[in-house]
Amino acid sequence: MIAGWCLVQLALNAAFAALTAAVPDQVRPRWRGMVGGWLGVSQVVGILVGTALATVAGGITAGYLACAGFSVLAAVPYVLMRRDSALAPAARPAFRWRTFLAGFWIDPRRHPDFGWAWLTRFLMNLSYSISTMYLLYYLTDAVRYEGDADTGVLILTALNALTLLSTVVISGIRSDRSGRRKSYVIRSGLVIAAATLLLAVWQTWTGAVVASLVLGLGFGVYTAVDFALLTDVLPTAEDRGRDLGVINIANALPQVLAPVIAAPVVTHLGGYAALYALAGGLALVGSILVRRIRSVL
After folding, report:
1. 41, 114, 128, 241: most buried by Cβ count inside 10 Å?
2. Do 215 and 167 touch, CB atoms closer than 8 A?
3. How far apart are alpha carbons 119 and 115 in whole angstroms?
4. CA 254, CA 292: separation in Å to the nearest integer?
């Protein structure tokens, strides 16, 4: 299971880095908020379709095989329809391991806006991961949900997805039209922080429902506009794929760190109130640090 999951993460992150790198290569800056919104839609819909596909297939083996087949088929339209501008062989730099490995470090002193953008994305995703990954135990241990906790999580996830989809595209379009990115990211971070604090202080089923709706609103705006902001602070056009791959670490790493952080907080440092207060604090700090980015309005 560990080996398979590592391979899945490796392959999906490689594909995601290549797909996102195509956006700044192919899309003008004034349209990137809208495109970022549709990328957010695709991620939410992909999760829902993948879950439905695995359920319809029936059984663990059949579900994984169905998802594996779909992953291959889903890449075909892009491969057939996309016309990337390939570099001539003579223009491609020679591959060297030292250069390749050194490329994973982008000096934040030379590229401070990129560094701040990476850090704020890391903090926001860590907050979101902490908020969503422990909902099952939150409903069981804190809310004392009377029904099936798995069903409760499914309801909360669906509500979160609903409000996320309601804001993700329109916020990207509005950001494009206004030419502003930071104000949208800051306000969305404050909304995310508010949602997590609701989970901390209002530990009831009604509170969980309201918090999930608010969290989706905030993360929808953040998903679209922060992606556009990131494409505006990439250090060089030649290394967009690599740089967005480095950014993708800020997406994947919080999913690994969230359980490591959450377990001792819940067990020894104050329970779920402290856990969600911590998530709110992370989102709040991330929002504040967005102001340190200078090259984007």
Report:
1. 128
2. no
3. 6
4. 22
Contact by Cβ (8 Å): 255, 129? yes
164: enclosing H helix or E strand: helix 149-178
Alpha-carbon separation of residue 33 from 36, 179, 224, 281 (angstroms): 5, 10, 6, 26
Which pLDDT value is given to residue 182? 92
Give a three-class secondary structure readout of 47-109.
Answer: HHHHHHHHHHHCCHHHHHHHHHHHHHHHHHHHHHHCCCCCCCHHHCCCCCHHHHHHCCCCCCC
Instruction: Answer whether residue 132 shows pLDDT above 90.
Output: no
Q: Please report the sign of the dihedral spanned by the C-alpha atoms of residue 124, residue 127, residue 130, residue 132.
A: negative
CA 93/CA 95 separation, integer angstroms: 6
Q: Which amino acid is at 151?
A: T
What is the value of pTM for the model shown? 0.84
Phi, psi values for residue 111, rounded to 5°: -130, 70
For the purposes of burial, counting CB atoms within 10 Å of the CB of 128, is it exposed (0-12), middle (13-18) or buried (19 or more)?
buried
121 CB-near residues (< 8 Å, 6+ apart): 226, 230, 247, 250, 251, 286
- Residue 242, Cβ neighbours under 10 Å: how many? 18
Helix (H) or strand (E) segment spanning residue 287: helix 271-289
pLDDT at 288: 93
Q: b or e along 150-185 (b: 16 or more beta carbons within 10 Å of the residue's beta carbon)? A: eebbebbbebbbebbbebbbbbbebbbeeebbbebb
CB neighbours (10 Å) of residue 59? 10
The pLDDT-based confidence of 199 (bands split at 50, 70, 90) is: very high
